[in-house]
Amino acid sequence: MNKVFLVIKREYLARVRKKSFLLATLITPLVFPAILGIFLWISLSDEGGEALKIIEVVDDSGRFFLESNGQYAFSYSKLPVDEAKAMVQEGKRYGFLYIPQVDIKNPKGIVYYSEKNPSMGLVSHLERELKRKIEEIRLFDTGIDPKVISEVRTNVSIQSVTLEESGEEKLSNAGVNYGLGFFLGILIYTFIFVYGTQIMQGVIEEKSSRIIEILVSSIKPFQLMLGKIIGIGAVGLTQFLIWIVLISTISTVVMGYFGMQMPQQQALEMANPEAAQTLANSSDIAQIMQVIQGIDFVQLVLTFLFYFLGGYLLYGAFFAAIGAAVDSPSDAQQFMFPVTIPLIASYFALFVFILDDPNSNISFWLSVIPFTAPIAMVGRASFGIPAFDLVISMIALIAGFLFTTWVAAKIYRIGILVHGTKVSYKTLWKWIKQSN
Question: Is the N end or the C end of the chain the one with fewer CB atoms within 10 Å?
Answer without folding.
Answer: C
